[in-house]
Design a protein that fits this description.
Helices cover about 40% and strands about 15% of the residues. The protein has about 170 residues and is of the alpha/beta class.
Length: about 170
């Protein structure tokens, strides 16, 4: 089973009405050196300027990004070529990140290589600490820049910390 840490940036709160602008993924291994980055052309004319600003891209820039179907097929190939066993989707905020990735996979490919479930990093940390308010973001080594590969890598560093330093029983392949 391979864990894949994912982070997305969007131009609004929900897929379909708004667009996923870019996303990054990191295969969780000791090296954290196997990554994927996709930039996707908007699928809707709707966008929230404040949400888009988080990504660092202008609306004009996003219009030149890649076709979403192409990017999702490339991501699916990356997952197949880099994971062993069933790939497990994990993110900082899987309620948000999963929603977009799952919707885009089903909408553009008719399937989701992650299946129907995901994991939330924060919940794992809170469970280990036995505190639903436990804070973990200070454990990131990579700065949180809103570049989704950087953000996924920083979150993967926390997952590795939880395994090495806190005794999280997790099999990373």
């Amino acid at each position: 089973m391979s864990y894949i840490m994912v982070d997305i940036e969007s131009d609004g709160p929900i897929p379909g009405d708004f667009s996923m602008i870019c996303f990054g993924a990191v295969l969780v291994t000791d090296e954290l050196d196997i990554t994927f980055y996709g930039k996707l052309k908007p699928i809707s004319e709707n966008f929230n300027p404040d949400a888009l600003a988080v990504s660092g891209f202008s609306r004009e820039e996003t219009l030149s990004f890649d076709d979403p179907a192409k990017v999702m097929l490339e991501f699916e190939d990356w997952i197949k070529n880099n994971s062993k066993g069933r790939p497990v989707f994990i993110s900082d905020n899987n309620g948000f990140d999963w929603m977009f990735i799952c919707w885009y996979f089903h909408h553009f490919t008719g399937r989701n290589p992650f299946g129907y479930s995901s994991r939330r990093l924060s919940d794992l940390y809170c469970g280990l600490e036995k505190d639903t308010f436990a804070q973990w973001k200070h454990l990131r080594g990579t700065a949180h820049t809103h570049n989704p590969v950087d953000d996924a890598r920083g979150n993967a560093e926390v997952l590795l910390y939880m395994k090495r330093e806190m005794g999280l029983k997790i099999a990373l392949k």
